[in-house]
Amino acid sequence: MEVGKLRELLEQTDDKLSIFKTLDTETLRKTLVEHKEFYKESRINPYEVISMLDLEQQKEFIINLEKMNLTLNEKKEILATLKPDVKQSIDTTKFPEEYKIALSMQTKEHSGQIILDLERNLDDDQGLDNLIRVNPEEFNETQKAKFMKLCDICPEMKVESTIGIVPYTSSVREYKESNK
What we know:
By secondary structure, the protein is mainly α. The chain contains 11 helices and 3 strands. 51% of the residues lie in helices and 8% in strands.
């Protein structure tokens, strides 16, 4: 599909991800490589699109992952948000360690957000800020200390909180300022 036509379709809908989902794997790969700015303009991260694909499409996409002009963090986000069956089917023997770590991340089924594990090496989360949303309100002192370290490692992650019954999201910087 031509990017101009794709752009037209996207402007006509609020559900942009559903349009990307209809593209075949090769077209999707080409648009990610050749029109990376288009995705950024549309405020769509590559992992959001790939996580919506079915098992076979994800497998197809991963075969060409190294050939794609994506950042290391974008590749890690894609790997972390793959469906569990796809993660298990991938031969990782030639994968760099950071890819293996991303594949080992547990994610919430429908959101793709990483399930926080403060017992894991927190450096493993570096670069996966887009996938981390944490509500530290119920953390004990030890967990809070580890969470503050994670804030330094992943400064772009989102912190969820509630005031009364209203949930809201803040940046790490805002969270740190409110805790002073």
